[in-house]
Structures are given as C-alpha cells and as structure tokens.
Design goal:
By secondary structure, the protein is of the alpha/beta class. The protein is built from 16 helices and 18 strands. Among the domains are: 30 residues, no CATH class; 132 residues, 2-Layer Sandwich (Beta-Lactamase), CATH 3.30.450; 138 residues, Response regulator (Rossmann fold), CATH 3.40.50; 153 residues, Heat Shock Protein 90, CATH 3.30.565. Helices cover 51% and strands 16% of the residues. Helix 4 runs parallel beside helix 6, helix 7 runs parallel beside helix 11 and helix 9 runs antiparallel to helix 11. The radius of gyration is 61 Å and the shape is rod-shaped. It is found in: Membrane.
C-alpha cells in the first residue's frame, strides 16, 4: 500500500495521532499486532479457501461423474441383456432381466418397453420423484441376432434401429449424503487451514510486535526525558535478561536486536549529553547566581555610597555654599573672581548631588505622581519661557505645536521630562537649527514628540543613552555639558508615569524623542492659581537652627543675619525642644538637621515643633538620600530641603513664610 503524498501511515500500539516534526500529518492506526495479524491471515485465508473450493469442486465433479456413469452402465447392461427377449416378445425373460438388475442394488427401478406395447417393470414406485434420477439406453439387436432364420414370422431385419428403450432410476439420497460429506470435509479442511494460519500468523505477529512495543516504550521514555530507559531485545535463539518472558518474545529477528542496540546507544549518548548539559547548566547557574549576587552587592554598595556620600558631602558643601554667599557681597575686586569660581564649583557639585538624590528617590519609589489633566498649551508656554533665551543665544529656532490637546499626567514630572528633552535638543541642534515640539492624537493617546535636525545619534549609542553617566559627545567629561544623568532620570520618571521614552534617530538626520500619554478633555483642565504676592523683606523673622556641625551653624547664622533675620542656633535636639517649649519664646521658622549628635533624630524635633509651636514653619534639612530615609520622610509629610541648600531657595522659602504672616 502506498500512502498519499505528505501523509505517513504508522501502525502503533499506544500512541494517538500527533503531528510529525516537519509539520506533515501522521495518521496513526490501531494495534500493530492486529495489523500484522490481518496482513497474515487474509492472504492465508484466501489461499486456503481457494484451494478448498477447488478440491471440493473436483471431488463433487468426480462423484457426479461416477454416479451418472454407473447408472448409464446399468441401463446399457439391461439393454444388452434384453435385446433378444424384447425382439422375441418374451415377457418372462424380460421380467427376469429387470428383476435381476433391480436386485443388484444399484438402481431402484427398471423399465423395459418398446413401441409394440411391451412394457416390463421391476422395483418400487414409492420413492419420491425428486429423489430419483433416470438413465436411458436404447435396445438394439446384436449381429448374431440379426439372422433371418431365427426371426419370428412377420419380423423384419432389425439393422441399427432401436427396437425398444430401457429406463433405470437411481435413488440420489445416498449420492446427496456423499456430496454433503464431501462438502463438510472441504469446510473442515478449510477451517483447519484457517486455524493453522491464524495460529502461525499470531505467533509471528507476537514475535514482531513485542520487541517493537519495547522499542516504542523506550523511545517514548526517551522523549519524556527518561534517558536511563533501555530496550531488552535480543537476537534469535538468545535469552532475554528478564525472567518470566515467553519464548516468542525472546526469539526475534536480528534486525530488531540491531535496532534496539542502536536505540540503546542513542539513549546512552543522550544520557551523557544530558549529564554534560546539566553540569554546564549548573555551572552557568552558579556563575549567574554569583554575578547576580555581585550585582546586588554592587547595587547595595552604590546605594550605601550614595546615601553616605550625599550626607557626608552635603554637610560641608552646604556650609561652603553659605560661606561663599556670605563672602560674595563683601569680597574685593581682586577676590571676586575667585569667589565666583568657588560659587560655580559649588553649584556644579550641588547639581550632581541633586541628580544623584533624584535617581535615589526614583529607585526608592518614594515619589507618588499627582495625576491630573494637563493642558499642553500651558505646558509648552512654560517650557518656551524657560528655554527661549538659551535657544536665542545658540540661534536655534523653537517651534511649539500643542494642537489644543490635553493629557492625563503629573504636570511637574511631565515638565521635567519634556524640559530635559528640549534642552538636549537645543544643545545638539547647532546654529540655525530647528527644534519642533509637537503633540498629535493617536488612538486615544496623545503622542508628544521633540524633534531636532542636529547631528543625530548613531545606532550603537541609542541603547545606552538612558544609562547613568553615559554621554555620546562628552568624552572629555566637561561638567558644563552635564553629567549624563538627565535622560536616566527622565526614563525613570516616564516609567513612573506609566509610559516610556521612544527614540528614532540616525547620523546627520536629527533625532526624535517621543512619549505617549492618555488623552484628556482640554475643558477639564483647571486654571492655574494666581501668582503669590511678592516676597516681603525678611527683617525680624525669628529662626531656630538645629545642627551638630559648627561650620553649618556659623554659616547659616551669618547668612540669615545678613538677611536681617533673628537667629538662634543650637547643636542638639534636646536643647532645641527646650527652646521650643519655653513659653516666652516664639519662632517663625525651624531649620533642623536630620542626623544629630548622640543618635538624636531630627524627626523628633520636627514633631515637637508641630506640637509646641504649630504656627512655626518646620523644615528638615538633610543630606541623607537613602530609600528608607526618603520613605520615612514621605510618610511623615515633612518639608525637606536637601543639602546643599542654595541660598536663593532658602530665601524664597523664608519669603513665602513672611508673606503668609503678613497676609
């Protein structure tokens, strides 16, 4: 049987239909033993039935011929014996011939007659007509009987013309029984042949199917990953290692033994390969775990370093900034350039620490975005006011297209992301370039794009520009071009807002940064609150400063007294709480460090100030940037100034306090 193209007919014992490895269908039949049995029995049965039918038919033809020949011989014999008697009309003699023929037992009835009216019969008429078969023979005169001397008076010469007719009847009952016995014998022989063929084919099928079942089970075990499975199939005449197996299963063809041996070798190779693979996987896993542990340790070390460096560096940097701002108004013309350089250096250090703090806060997930409806027109107006002067100085054309759209986002964080992207685009566009900031609707989202026609970014750098401290065009690490943290911070903020920053760029073809945000109805955007009243002078503002660093206390005192504030400085939290509890003392502002000497906690001072003097503005000043600290401050709702505090930021905060009091 030839299977149709792309289909494979596989008789098997256990497996259902399943797709082949190359995608072609595999039609799975029934039992292999049943198929082999069918293939063996059908030809044997056909041959046995054909031979039995042929021999039975020959036997029946022989019986038929013998029965007819015997009846015809009796009829001829009676005709030969009755010619003279019939010719002479001797009825007694004819009767004797008929009786003798009937008594011979070969015929049941005999009739002799002629055209002259002679009729002699012998035998019974009781037998059914359907069980009788008639045989006839003509009665003719023999040569010796033709002499006219012996002819009766009036007789003529007979010649070859019949002078009468003999009819003998034979009973077919015995013949039918013989035919039936012959048929039954043929059927019996056919059944014996079929049974013998069935037994032989069954024996052969079992001898073939049993090793194939073992091979199939072994292959299935290998497919399931049990590579220790083996085929217990041996060659003809050998003994299987397992006890209790019959001889048929142990005496199989050498081909199956060779196939089983090949499968066993394959299983051994697979087992060795799996052991090697497992060893390699274990080794690779151990290396990966070690590297993960090293990476986690490095991350923890970086976090600890950032926290420690932020706190330890912000303390002197904060004091340095205060001292520099205090020296600047009184510096001479010769001293002023050096003081300005010191101020610039302190400013760069402050920016770097601020960026590190921002990344630490984002990694600590202490920022919770305040999602609302943001008008892109107002957002672009703010960005235009921030970057217009710098763009004009670099001869870069800024184009804003808000499309009258609004988005759902945190306005401050979104302003930070787009502002950083616009600033980078202005930097890398070049003179007489163009930066386009556009928004367009896209399937229920608003896509904001920042495009420039600058030098572009090579594909090799595009995957790394969002990493910390990675800058494409600042190999000299010029701090005036930034520190390489802006895009890293923007990527983290975008993830916090539930989006991501996309990039499409090519060398000399410009760059396009984009992000998608949910669309909002511009009519639902709240108008900004009116601008606060102008800051009033700080003269007479009573301030309590708490810090365990004498340099910071001296610098803060000098700066605040320069602003005509009334300043009182203490070095411990217990002393600060005593001053806050004094009934005759009232403070407008409390500036307290977080980590004080003798393991005192600035949060306790803040809580005491809220309880003892609730009208005072309690501000926590700290250089700590660890995730635990930031989480704690956020949960406590504490107003935080991160060291080093820019004097302008501190003055703006105190000015709002003074404005609140005068209002």
């Amino acid at each position: 049987m030839i299977a149709p193209p792309h289909r494979l007919v596989v008789p098997t014992t256990a497996r259902p239909s399943e797709p082949a490895a190359d995608g072609r269908a595999v039609v799975v039949g029934g039992s292999l033993q049943r198929d082999l049995f069918r293939l063996g029995v059908v030809p044997c049965a056909a041959v046995a039935l054909a031979l039995t039918a042929w021999f039975t038919h020959s036997r029946l033809d022989t019986l038929e011929g013998a029965f007819n020949a015997e009846g015809q011989a009796v009829a001829r014999q009676v005709a030969a014996m009755s010619d003279l008697s019939l010719y002479a009309g001797d009825l007694p003699a004819l009767q004797n011939v008929a009786n003798a023929a009937q008594r011979g037992g070969q015929v049941t009835r005999v009739e002799i007659s002629n055209s002259a009216g002679v009729y002699v019969t012998a035998g019974s008429k009781a037998a059914p007509v359907g069980h009788l078969r008639m045989f006839t023979a003509p009665v003719t005169l023999r040569e010796a009987s033709r002499a006219s001397a012996f002819a009766p008076e009036g007789a003529t010469a007979a010649g070859d013309k019949p002078i009468g007719l003999v009819q003998v009847f034979r009973d077919t009952t015995g013949y039918a029984r013989e035919r039936t016995r012959s048929l039954m014998a043929g059927i019996g022989i056919a059944m014996i042949a079929l049974i013998a063929a069935w037994a032989w084919v069954r024996h052969t099928a079992r001898a073939v199917a049993q090793p194939l079942r073992r091979i199939s089970r072994t292959v299935a075990a290998l497919e399931a990953g049990r590579f220790e499975a083996r085929c217990n199939v041996v060659a003809r005449g050998a003994k299987a290692p397992a006890d209790g197996e019959d001889d048929d299963a142990r005496r199989v063809q050498h081909e199956f033994a060779h196939l089983a041996h090949d499968i066993n070798r394959l299983a051994e190779r697979l087992q060795r390969n799996r052991q090697q693979s497992e060893e390699q996987v274990r080794a690779a896993t151990a290396v990966a775990l070690q590297r993960m542990a090293e990476a986690e340790q490095a991350s923890l070390s970086r976090a600890r370093f950032l926290a420690a460096a932020s706190h330890d560096l912000r303390q002197p940097l904060h004091a340095m900034g205060l001292f520099i701002d205090g020296l600047l108004p009184t510096a001479s013309e010769a001293q002023r350039p050096a003081v300005l350089r010191l101020q610039e250096g302190a400013g760069f250090m402050s920016l770097l620490l601020d960026d590190l703090l921002e990344i630490s806060r984002l990694d600590a997930q202490v920022l919770t975005p305040a999602i609302g409806n943001v008008s892109l027109a107002m957002l672009f107006d703010q960005l235009g006011a921030q970057h217009a002067a710098r763009a004009a100085s670099l001869q870069v054309r800024l184009v804003w297209r808000d499309g009258g759209l609004a988005v759902r986002s945190d306005p401050a964080l979104l302003l930070r992301i787009i502002g950083n992207l616009v600033g980078n685009a202005i930097t890398h566009t070049g003179a007489e370039g163009t930066v386009l900031v556009a928004a367009r609707r896209r399937a229920g989202q608003v896509r904001i794009e920042v495009r420039d026609n600058g030098v572009g970014i090579a594909p090799i750098h595009q995957a790394r520009i969002f990493e910390e401290f990675y800058q494409v065009a600042n190999t000299e690490r010029d701090r005036r071009q930034g520190f390489g943290l802006g895009l890293a911070i923007c990527a983290r903020i975008a993830a916090l807002l539930g989006t991501r920053i996309g990039l499409r760029s090519a060398l000399q073809a410009g760059s396009t940064f984009s992000l998608e945000l949910p669309e909002a109805d511009p009519r639902d955007v709240q108008r900004p609150s009116p601008a606060p009243v102008a800051s009033s002078p700080l003269a007479g503002l009573r301030c309590l400063v708490v810090d365990d660093d004498p340099a910071i206390l001296d610098a803060t005192r000098a700066l605040l007294e320069q602003w005509d504030c009334e300043v009182e400085c203490v070095a411990s939290g217990s002393e600060a709480m005593r001053r806050l509890a004094a009934p005759e003392v009232h403070f407008d502002v409390l500036l307290c460090d977080l980590q004080l000497a003798d393991a005192e906690d600035g949060m306790e001072v803040i809580e005491a100030a809220r309880r003892l003097q609730p009208d005072a503005l309690a501000v926590l000043v700290s250089g700590a940037t660890g995730p635990e600290v930031l989480q704690r401050l956020r949960q406590g709702g504490v107003l935080l100034l991160t060291k080093p505090v820019a004097p302008a930021k501190l003055r703006a905060l105190l000015s709002t306090r003074r404005a609140g009091r005068t209002g």
